[in-house]
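Key idea: predict the complex, not the pieces.
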Amino acid sequence: MLQPPPAHPGMREDEIDTPALVIDLDAFEYNLDTMAAMIADKPVKLRAHAKTHKSPVIALQQMARGAVGQCVQKVAEAEILAWGGVPDILVSNEVVGALKLARLAALSKIARVAVCADDAPQIAAIAAAAENAGVRLSVLVEIDAGGKRCGVNSGPDAVALAQLIAASPHLRFGGLQAYHGSAQHLRQPAQRAAAIASAAEGCRRTVEQLRQVGLDCPIVGGAGTGTFMHEATSGVYTELQAGSYCFMDADYAANLDDAGKPVSTFRHALFVLGTVMSAARPGVAVLDIGHKAVAVDCGLPLVWQRPDVRYVGASDEHGTLNFGPETAAPKLGEKLRLVPGHCDPTVDRHEWYVGVRNGRVECLWPVAAHGAMF
Amino acid sequence: MLQPPPAHPGMREDEIDTPALVIDLDAFEYNLDTMAAMIADKPVKLRAHAKTHKSPVIALQQMARGAVGQCVQKVAEAEILAWGGVPDILVSNEVVGALKLARLAALSKIARVAVCADDAPQIAAIAAAAENAGVRLSVLVEIDAGGKRCGVNSGPDAVALAQLIAASPHLRFGGLQAYHGSAQHLRQPAQRAAAIASAAEGCRRTVEQLRQVGLDCPIVGGAGTGTFMHEATSGVYTELQAGSYCFMDADYAANLDDAGKPVSTFRHALFVLGTVMSAARPGVAVLDIGHKAVAVDCGLPLVWQRPDVRYVGASDEHGTLNFGPETAAPKLGEKLRLVPGHCDPTVDRHEWYVGVRNGRVECLWPVAAHGAMF
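Result:
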């Protein structure tokens, strides 16, 4: 279904219908500005990951601050961004199936589009799709940067695939995709630094071996919100793919900095606003925010600015809050903000962003690629 | 976004685009028939829970087999069902907020609509909405049947609310809502029996106390797929609210029967079909099914009819499969079915059901109330 928006501009925050996905616009813009400033003097560009925000509106704000383009994970996300005016898109993922590849090839007529591969048959399938559409597609080789998910080994395996790509008249070798996902939430800064140092070493070796066979490597892409300064200063990565930095979530905020404190580079800018729908029992309030409105795969949400109230359990449509006898009990009908544990899949539950500033609704943006699974 | 359907009628299953939500129509119809047969001679009716399927098409198939109506959790779900021809709908949940209550009151002009309450101010708000719309709304009192979520205590607290409802010229006392959610997945049958015996005792006492103050109790509603035969034979419950039985999921299939074996009353009828999108490393294959396509809040999905292949981890768009050296490795591009750990939120990730029989796509049904959060 297409849901009506839960608010209109000018409303007070407490008038927003719930559950609603709320952006604190001041914090959000602070995050965009902060990232742009932090990498301005580094030899890298930002290609922000749209899997977080799923919105061409937000993508264009990132590009206005210097991002060279966007990453996506699915062809449908690439379509939504291209149709919304984003000119340069990397599918930082494998795309398997003739139908999906035909869509990707068609899309490359209105935007610059690149895709990843980690297997020779995939490269042949991408070349066939490009030939059918009469286009030339840029293909990056994905290497396993340590996450043990997709990707070939760095070194000779990656070089062999790059040569296959470069040998096709319908393809262009775009570079290396080397995202280390499992490094992002290592809590200690030394762990994150070591993981990315190892990933960067694999990239460096591969770039050198590519050079030895006469192949230039235009892009070495990777990095997330947990590690991006390590990739930025690695000397080998050229593009950063951080996504969550624009919103932050409770899981990223649990990473520690060198002083042993929670990292505070970015601010919490994304919230799920809920209403207390039952307060019939002492010490308990029930919010209208359960699995359908917030993702709990990386931990339960936190109640914003209410450390005395804990979100203790989600069911499909309900979230249970507990609090002690000394706490001012949340009242029936009261609205509370939650900080999601994991922003990307939380955003995917919603169809609208409600942008708030100074307690008032300022804008409504569609979560345009909500549910874009193909 | 509204996604195009991932298939068309007549396709072979291996031609369906993925990720896709697939119904095995034979197993699904078996489940509907089995439930109808099991309660045919019991003093209860089925009011199946549409929070599972979110589809008027499925609702009407349940009603054709004897269900008296449907339950929903949200006003938006009630709207979708009523617009799809379902004539009798209970919101088995509290509805808080003037906007939502106005929609519910308006809806009662095209369908029989009832709602729950567990607090006096809610009852006043429902009465105001009914008065504004010029309708009379049926309100059930929710009692805490043991789940410690919403609901007042059984006995005098519930009777007091029932009297408030009955005293309003704009409301009608509809009965008791007494769903024991946390009993559904108690693994041992004796635990489930004891939990429902306790819930039924609270209902029985409350019905008796209502009678003493002159109030008839038209409905005593509750029960889920894990416990429904206990409510059906309790002598006090009159309506069963099972939802998952039509699909089953891995979590319900882990309940044990009296012989200590997994319950086998219903068949797995719901699957998420995925494609192997990376097979670059030995012992590992990556499916295109992660958090966006399958819910893992009640456990990871199982690979259907492939006990030698395990789904070991979900990220947003990827699912990692592990297998041993003796296994025939899933190949790049191969399609596999997963049995979701939890069917309700898995269905909510999708916009289309693909109905399959004998290896061919027979029908496409919209998940009409997908994302219905308000």
